[in-house]
Amino acid sequence: MKQHPALAPYATVHAYGWGDLLHEQARSRHAMPATIDGDHVYSYAALDDRVNRLAGVLRSKGVVKGDRILWLGQNSFRVLEALLASARVGAIFCPANWRWSVQEIAFALDDFDPKVVFWQDAEIGAVNRDARKGWKPDGNWICHDGCDGEDSYEAMLAAADPEADFDPVEPSTPLLGIYTAGFSGRPGAALLSHESLMIIAWLAMTSQAIDEDSGYLVSGPMFHLGVLMGTLGTFLAGGRNAFVARVDATELLENIARHRLTHAFVPQPTVVQMREANRDGRYNVSSIWSDNQMSDYVMPMVMPRHAPAMRRIGGYGQTEIGGLAAVAWMGGSGAGRPVPFVQFRIADEAGQELPFGQTGEILARGPIVMCGYWNRPEENARRVVDGWHRTNDLGKRLDDGSLVFIGPKTTMIKTGVENVYPAEVENCLKAHEGVADVAVIGVPDPTWDQNIKAIIVRKPGTDFPPEAFITHVRDRLAGYKKPKIVEFADSLPRGADYQLDRAALDANYGGGGYPRAG
């Protein structure tokens, strides 16, 4: 955008990224603890020094603006350091899933093409070494834990120049890459900018009631945006982040008691283990829960009771739109209302807005929406329509303007000239008192291209006939969306992530004839 000549002196004033934020934290909170990881405890001033040194290491490896940095390891305070050092040099940082196989790592190496790879030796060293052999064995690989020699993270930092040296960064520059679920048969790295990360970190800080006295237990995987946003929200507020490599009930309890932590990411199965480990009350967890058995635990994102996100739980989001972008704590019903940094549109296939109450694809626009997928020009072109990002999710607006998330736009059924999304019909059927589980597929039809078929797992003790379920949908959705065929099953095929295995459903129940969905 062309700027008025009189405003030219201010062109550089607004350049502000995460490297600048760290520099300010090192001044305004220089003696306050920033990161904790076992015996490693660093103040904001010490963190700034370490990040300066690491940025120097990256430059010595030839990293320039736009290059990529990959992290192949578990949680560590060094993940935050590597992210901030990437910000200092204008690179894009990606924390990979440390549970990936050699083949999955090899895919990411080819796809993301990192200039530097930080890797971990403990527990996953063999997998990382195998992946390196098949890619660029002479590349810039830096071992972050326990490795001796010149390629050791700590040895490189000790020898590096501590002087701060970084150019101003345009806020819209990509900083973080997060690999999301596959589209077109392969996953892609969604890129989030300095600006978007700062906004969604501020949203995490606000919604979770994080301030400079808060301590966040980084116990969930940092390759997920939800955990990373709690970490960055704590950094933004000037609080302290306590890292654990992976979930261990006793280690979590020790960290909470020792560092008086106030926030965490702890899944339900881990809480059960923590309760067992703390039956005798040996660990004081009063900084985060009301009693030693954690009886007030509600959800994995653990925060004080007075936090806005605890007062009204729920929302809708995805990595590509900065995590939770519609939230119940902002008001409304359903998934709530959008946060102030995003706009939603419920649209038809052409991207045209639909009236309230009609189901369509959720489109989004605003500064928290991703910059696009790395190395996916065709997908990026397909996912933008008239300046809006296609989420590939279905939703609708209620009469009060609130957003309702229906489900993923995974498969489209074509019946005559009409498009039907299984997720919408499944969502409707789940409200029937006789349905325990349900899947909807399309089956070939010589006249209508496809018919809609519902496979239903009945709730115990119920015996509603097929017609009851067909009527239930017809009374609530357009007539063409009702199933013509209902079949009952004892269970539905699902993957390890509990997602419906739609290929198995089609194979087992006669599905097929789907149109090519855009």
Keywords:
single chain; 518 residues; alpha/beta; Luciferase, domain 3; 26 strands; globular
Count of individual beta strands: 26
What structural class do the secondary elements suggest?
alpha/beta
Mean pLDDT: 93
How far is it from the N-terminal to the C-terminal residue, by CA?
32 Å
The residue fraction in helices comes out at 25-40%
Unreliable spans are none
Can you tell me about this structure?
With 518 residues, this protein is an alpha/beta fold. Among the domains are: 15-29 and 40-184, Rossmann fold; 312-408, Luciferase, Domain 3 (Luciferase, domain 3, Roll); 413-509, GMP Synthetase, Chain A, domain 3, CATH 3.30.300. It has 15 helices and 26 strands. A hairpin with a 3-residue loop joins β24 and β25 (449-458). α1 packs across α3 (77-89), α2 crosses α6 and α7 (194-207) packs across α8 (225-237). The longest helix is centred in the first third of the chain and has 17 residues, at 44-60. It starts with 17 loop residues before the first helix and ends in a 9-residue tail after the last helix. The relative contact order is 0.07.
Quick take:
With 518 residues, the protein is α/β, with parallel strands linked by helices.
Task: Give the topology.
Blueprint: H1 18-28, E1 33-37, E2 40-43, H2 44-60, E3 68-72, H3 77-89, E4 92-95, H4 102-112, E5 116-119, H5 125-133, E6 140-143, H6 153-159, E7 174-183, E8 186-193, H7 194-207, E9 215-218, H8 225-237, E10 240-243, H9 249-259, E11 263-265, H10 268-277, E12 301-302, H11 308-311, E13 315-318, E14 323-327, E15 337-338, E16 343-347, E17 360-365, E18 372-373, H12 377-382, E19 384-385, E20 388-397, E21 403-408, E22 413-415, E23 418-420, H13 422-429, E24 435-445, E25 449-458, H14 466-474, E26 485-488, H15 502-509
Parallel strand pairs: 1-10, 3-4, 3-5, 5-6, 9-10, 9-11, 25-26
Antiparallel strand pairs: 1-2, 7-8, 8-18, 11-12, 13-14, 14-15, 16-17, 17-20, 19-20, 20-21, 22-23, 24-25
